[in-house]
Amino acid sequence: MLTAPKIGGSKTCPSWHNRALATILSLKEAVQEYVDDGNVMALEGFTHLIPFAAGNEIIRQKRRNLSVIRMTPDLIYDQLIGAGCVSKLQFSWGGNPGVGSLHRLRDAVENGWPGPLEIVEHSHAGMAAAYAAGASHLPFGMLRGYLGSDLPNYNPQIKFIDCPFTGERLAAIPAIRPDVTIVHAQKADHRGNVLMWGVVGVQKEAVLAAKRAIVTVEEIVTSLNAPPNAVVLPSWVVTAVCEVKGGAFPSYAQGYYSRNNAFYKAWDAIARERDGFQDWIERYVFGVKDFAEFRRAVEAGASV
Prior knowledge:
Layout: E1 23-24, H1 27-34, E2 40-43, H2 52-60, E3 66-70, H3 75-82, E4 86-91, H4 103-111, E5 118-121, H5 124-135, E6 140-143, H6 151-154, E7 159-162, E8 169-174, E9 180-189, E10 194-196, H7 203-209, E11 212-221, E12 231-233, E13 240-243, H8 261-272, H9 274-286, H10 291-300
Parallel strand pairs: 1-13, 2-3, 2-9, 3-4, 4-5, 9-11, 11-13
Antiparallel strand pairs: 6-8, 7-8, 9-10, 10-12
């Protein structure tokens, strides 16, 4: 395993992003060190570069009472919720893209299984504004939105203020500031600088807003050779880098592999009933030691 000097990355650092270098760790070590029970946690990725390997490792380590945030919670959060890791979800859309509902999310909301789930719902624009505010270390985000919507009746975090310059009525929502953000990217170098390109959502803002950031990558290289319009996260905003090949599976990583649509379709039946979901988690998450073994088991299994 490649290692870098552990100059920064402490959970007790006195101020955000006060780290000189990211630490290169295994994913198991990073979750053990930087994800605690009760954390506010964001696992971001929009269609592309979704950090599934990290989600599986969090389940495997049986983290509990997590307050999770994501603009578009899909299968990764369905798994975390069904495994009993999550007590609160802040989001703007939830579903199995192109397939249907998230049955474990629905069961938790409607029936409290495997435990009660508090939900805080926003619009996509509201979540983006809240992440941008957190990344800028501002107390709240503003946007032209929510007027005429029912969401303010159900989400007390949504407030309205008057612009001091124009008098325009604007929505205000609290900044998102996770204890830990986890994202997946294509590359990192030996110093912990991270490169991602392709369809990028709010990963950059989610990392900048967080107290700690774990990034799983397809490979660690000597030089990033960043192309135009790519995103580079400097090592001083990253706590730990973990090389996990295929770590976004079944989503895709541009330049490395395609989306596994069959997995998303199969998930509907797997997660629909509690017993089927629990059997799958026992076999493919608790029954394997890491994500590489998970992928081998999935490819050999008949259920996905």
